[in-house]
Amino acid sequence: EIQLQESGPGLVKPSQSLSLTCSVTGYTITSGYDWSWIRKFPGNKMEWMGYISYSGSTNYNPSLKSRISITRDTSKNQFFLQLNSVTTEDTATYYCARCYPGITDYWGQGVMVTVSS
Amino acid sequence: DIQMTQSPASLSASLGETVTIECRASEDIYNGLAWYQQKPGKSPQLLIYNANSLHTGVPSRFSGSGSGTQYSLKINSLQSEDVASYFCQQYYDYPYTFGAGTKLELK
User: B43-57 pLDDT, tens per residue?
Assistant: First the structure.
């Protein structure tokens, strides 16, 4: 069974970086698919943030392009989100997910991140 | 970016009723549309992809239709376990974008 699990701090200070890890079991992230980060804001708006493909290429939402980085550790079957210079507007529930070509068939349970001093 | 306008924002229906949720794209998305169900405290679950293909394991009372810029999700014979939020997502073009969601409640 494919499972994705997000982990990381639930509270980040404004202007700092948000870093999250997605651990994948049941499927090797280099075997196929795009491995995405998606967030849901308070008020329920959803935003696709970007992905790292099975080959290691990345694609980011232009609205975040200057602040976002998605990387991976293939030895641990994990991929990561880093979002720099966060503000309170980055407060959201962050999901990692498996997608192709945008169809998201597996989601993590989500991790709530609050940006606050 | 392609804007996805979803309606209604909330919906109240009775058990056994048929409900329809709509999504309108700001441009033609050539059936690059998925529907998801999300229950409180849970992660979203894929229901429909390619506008009208039922995902594995999804009950057949769920169906999707549409083309061009107009798409809909229909739930036949509403069950209590269908109480959830539903949202659409286009994946025809980057960045992928989502509808604002529809909260479905029992009347």
Answer: 999 999 999 999 999
Cβ-in-10-Å burial (0-12, 13-18, 19+) of A109 comes to: middle
Using the structure block, give the residue that is written with the tokens 């009208």. B52
Q: What is the pLDDT of residue A43?
A: 86
Contact indicator for B42, B33 with CB cutoff of 8 Å? no
The pLDDT value recorded for residue A6 is: 98
* Alpha-carbon gap: A110 to the closest alpha carbon of chain B (Å): 7
At A28, is the secondary structure helix, strand, or coil? coil
Q: How far is CA B26 from the centre of its chain?
A: 17
Contact yes or no for B97 and A48 at CB 8 A? yes
* DSSP single-letter state for residue B82: G
Q: Distance (Å, rounded) from C-alpha A111 to C-alpha A58? A: 22
CB contacts of B55 in chain A (<8 Å) are 105
Which among A35, A41, A48 is the top mutation candidate for probing chain B, defined by the most B β-carbons within 10 Å of its own β-carbon? A48
- Name the token pair of A113: 């991140």
